[in-house]
Predict the structure.
Amino acid sequence: MQFIIFIAFTLLVGVIAYLATRNTNENSEDGYFLGGRSLTAPVIAASLLLTNLSTEQLVGLNGSAFNEGILVMAWETLAAIAMVVTATLLLPRYLKGGLTTIPQFLERRYDTATKSITSGLFLSGYVVVLLPIVLYSGAVAIIGMFDLTTLFNLSQGTTLVVTVWSIGLIGSVYAIFGGLKAVAVSDTVNAVGLLIGGLMIPIFGLMYLGDGSLFSGIETLYANDPSKFNAIGSDTSAIPFSTLFTGMVLVQLFYWGTNQAIIQRALAAKNLVEGQKGLIIAAFVKILGPIIVVLPGIIAYSIFGDTLDASQADQSYGLLVNRVLPPVLLGFFAAVLFGAILSSFNSALNSSVTLFGLDIYKQYLNKNADERQVVRAGKIFGIVLAVLSMFIAPGIANAPEGLFGYLQEVNGCYTVPILTIILVGYLTQYVPALAAKVAMVMGVTLYSFSQFFLKDYVISNGGTYPHFLHIMGMLFLCIIAVMLVIGKWRPRTEAYVQTYTEQVDITPWKPVKIMGVIITVIVISTYFIFT
């Protein structure tokens, strides 16, 4: 019965996505890559949230909360402030320029080589890190929830391969053959289900602790270990409080303001008002994110704290679901979780197709390509990329312990340099392309040297090393200084002025600043409440 509910809900999402996109012109660049620039605020908000939320957060962040408590909510709540900055500062500039990809702006502001380097960094991150990790973690979650190894009488390795390819093929159909609008529509439906399903886990968990009473469960949860509700981390915690003012700000702003897989939803807005509304709605919901991706981890600690050690924390969410969720709801929740997995996979894949088609194929392989040829080339590249990721993903099972944390740290190689050259590009007029190239090489090289050589050397010799978020903050300031110096030394001959392409209406949403202030105040208040 559970499996039937799972299949039925998954098919329902597919049918809705097909009906909503069958009249979209998928042969044009705007139609395929940006859904015809037709997305409205609710669709943008839902797609933003579900693109971000997947098994990595549901399993990983709740696992961190199992060990660290509520302080890991910083990954969720501070995202809301980053969305406000994106809505008020970055999105108006993006839509004014009629951008389809972030590297397109870098070509206009600097030069083609800068755009190509940035596209290459984005694509390498998606291929090596994001796509295989999403497939692997999603497959592990689905296998555990349905016990597929026993159900199909297959070995663990074979079950993993079959599940990875099943997720990958379904996700590819959405992303490659449906374009962004199919991705966004399916995200919207799944977002509603994930919101319902995600909230069910802490509710049933608290009722389990309170012997049927929600409020008694809250009292019991706090009484069991009040230290889990302290949002101010120590210097040895996973997120020291000081990092909230250094690298954490940069990571959030990069992810929500410049990461192609995320910001592409806002770029597809029918106008600036809808784009800003979508980001603000998503920001308000993101403030409540800890209820879904942090609170269950703390509940799991109260239930399984005596049986699971810190190294087994990632198992806590699945155990909690199986312990507190009524069996009749398990199929629905599994389908919603499957939708979240698909969302992260097909969103990254769609963005990879966009970057390749517009920034590489049309730029270097076929400069005279028409829109139909660009879309076709992007789809072929997407198929190749999807297949490669499906081959790579099962091999992650043989990787050393702690690989996921390592790969998160690897993302810092391009986070700081890309964010820096975008911000400097918008906030200055005379900094030249040379400065952007130096910044990219400098950022990747210094961060890699710091985290993958110098840190190990210092720690192995008994020393202490700054948190990687602090390293990001220091590099950010250093790279900005270098870019400004180069701008004084060899400035552009003409000031850069962004032109309005008139592709979309960029009249701003009047309440956006007021809403931004409200969101910021709420986020800051949470730290006073949980201190």
